[in-house]
Amino acid sequence: MTRSSSQSRSMKSAARLYAVQALFQMEVSGQTVEAVCREFEDHRFGAVYEGDEMQDGDVDLFRSLVDTAVDRQAKIDQATDRALVAKWPIQRIDPTLRALFRVAGAEMVIADTPPKVVIVEFVQVAEAFFPEGKEPRFVNAVLDHMAREFQPDAF
What residue segments make up the domains of the chain, in order of their start? Predict the structure, then answer.
């Protein structure tokens, strides 16, 4: 793998993580899509805080994921609900997981990335947010169900 393809993959991974954070921020703060995206692009992508450099991200992928998650939220939430236990609709789960499922669902709806790659990437995002918990396995199961619904021909 060349350095540029490795860097590109890293920037895509960062864009996915930032998109989850952006959706979470929008939900808890009530800010608009445009305001949150501008803040991330201007102040988080590649920024340095207290000597730590934040990862640079793929801005186009970030915008595409956030915009699709917002525009197609009802469809994505319905698919997520079908993947969840009946007593735990998406509105009852942790807001970080809710944002993660919406962004992952957006990437599946876009269908540019193979579903298995989307699942692996977002399980890693779950591991970043919940390093000690059972959430990554839960994310894997829900995303597998969603991927089979959104992209059945990929399996």
Answer: 3-154
∠ CA 150-152-154, rounded to 5°: 105
Residue 53 bridge partners (DSSP): 48
Residue corresponding to tokens 């540019």: 112
Q: From CA 80, how far away is CA 96, in angstroms rounded?
A: 14
- Alpha helices (H) along the chain: 3-29, 33-43, 59-71, 73-83, 95-110, 115-129, 135-150
Q: What is the pTM of this model?
A: 0.90
Provide the 10 A C-beta neighbour count for residue 86. 7
CATH architecture group of domain 3-154 = Orthogonal Bundle (1.10)
Give the span between the Cα atoms of 117 and 40, in whole angstroms.
24
How is residue 94 written in tokens?
Answer: 């942790």
- Total Cβ atoms within 10 A of residue 144: 15
Q: What digits encode the pLDDT tens for the residues 30-51? A: 999 999 999 999 888 877 777 7
**Amino acid symbol at 146:** M
